[in-house]
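Changelog note: in this version the structure field was regenerated for every chain. One regenerated record is shown below for reference.
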Amino acid sequence: MSKETIRVPDIGSSDPVDVIEVSVKKGDSVEAEDTIVVLESDKASLEVPCPKAGTVLELKVKAGDQVKEGDPLLDLDVAGEDGGDGSGDEAGDDGSKDNASDEEAASEKTSNKEASDKEASDQQDEADQQDDESAAKPAAGGTRTVAAPDLGDIDAAEIIEINVAEGDSVEAEQTILVIESDKASLEVPSPEAGTVKKLLVKVGDKIGTGTDLMELETAGGGDTSDKGSSEKGSGEKGGSEKAAAKDDGDAKAARSRKSDLDEKPSEAGRQSAAPETPEQSQGKPSASVHAGPAVRKLARETGIDLADVAPSGPKDRILKEDVHALIKQRLENPPAAGGAGAPDLPEIDFSEFGPVERQELNKLRKVAARNLHRSWITIPHVTQFDEADITELEAFRKSQNKALEKEGVKLTMLAFLVKACANALREFPRFNSSLELGGEALIMKDYVHIGIAVDTPNGLVVPVIRDADKKGLKDIALEMGELAGKARDRKLSPADMKGATFSISSLGGIGGTAFTPIVNWPEVAILGVSRSDTKPVWDGQTFQPRLTLPLSLSYDHRVIDGADAARFTSYLSQLLSDMRRALL
């Protein structure tokens, strides 16, 4: 017997790689170039062939281990090198016996191979889980440069939103910025928890795979920068060149095989992963999937749920190409919210019919368009129309404006509407709620914050008047003036536009008789107000001229019934016709 130890060949890097499949077991007969193990790095899978024929005496590795160049894989009893003097003569004495033995050996090898498949699959179950848990752990600490994740063949995407600032603390998987292609946006999560030390990009920048985004300071010591790690790996690789040079021919062959696999991952590597138990934890898919560690790492970096990825590998194994395909699909053809499909619209060349000019939408209008579209297709809208007699209220408003002119206060009809709506929301608390995402419960709010739609040259904004039910008309009027000024000067902060429980959209200063406003999710109702008009109203004996205000209440029919909507507008009309009711 001639025992020989088979080792990891030159794999093009000195960094450890994962053993994702062991293709043989103790006692198996192998031929030269038969695959004995499959290795996987972050970039490719690599099949390691047996350099010689023989019998496996002992395995030195198992699925889930990490190895590097030169590490032992198995001990092999090399065929035809046992030194026996009479072996050749004995074989020559009975050729038929030798052929039968060969057939038996081949049959035994096939049987052993099939038996080992299940064992390798079971080992892969545990290995994949260990790899995922290991990859999900944060780095050792220090300062690292966070780079853009692998976006596949997306060359460049624009940063439309940065959700963190220098000095902010972030958690693992927290969105740090949003990128956008021509048709959709994608959130980029933080790979681990830490403190933002420095932002390396700004809104409007174009980024691609590997673009540096920020410097993140994590707990502990030592520099864990992505670039630093890369340089370190490069240095270690240089240090191993002497060992790699011992067999230049084998090294070139191994590098050639790895280069091919960089283009197309091996089928054996694709088949090796076993289903993973679903877990409700960060970085875990919501359903059982077949995927290797590198694919799972890519999914974590890009915030992709592997359960959403359509597999193309053998035995429904998910490949990196599949993850890239989903990323590209979401950036170019976003799925409709709420699962509602939208028909494909044909591209039209309008220049065929006459001169045209393309005007790029600003960021505000793009964001508003996405929000409105989301609300329209996810909320079943119904609109209740009504009228309020504001004859006496308008007279009171004008008289009070003269008295308040010295104080710099100007009462508008919108200020009265805010106060009346605040009272109505307390009377009908269902209109002041939000529907839980799962649709199982309502979130009843014990505060009344009313959003006021303001038309600006750059688009529509909705600043919020907080605790409107606790404020008087003068306070509401002053605050509305301040918010409207900030809106026109583009000085509204995000905090000024968050937290509304109900919205009002007034077109009274422009015109119209009625319209259907779109509910501003996660609110459940919005009041539209059109231009007031004097109409003849029958008082039982004669027609009297009365100033009436058109009201259009849109509501989420999942939360509010038509009868409730009619009661709400009726109550609101009564308050506006006589504001003294608000004191009761």
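Spot check on this record: The longest strand covers residues 543-556. The chain has a mean pLDDT of 76.
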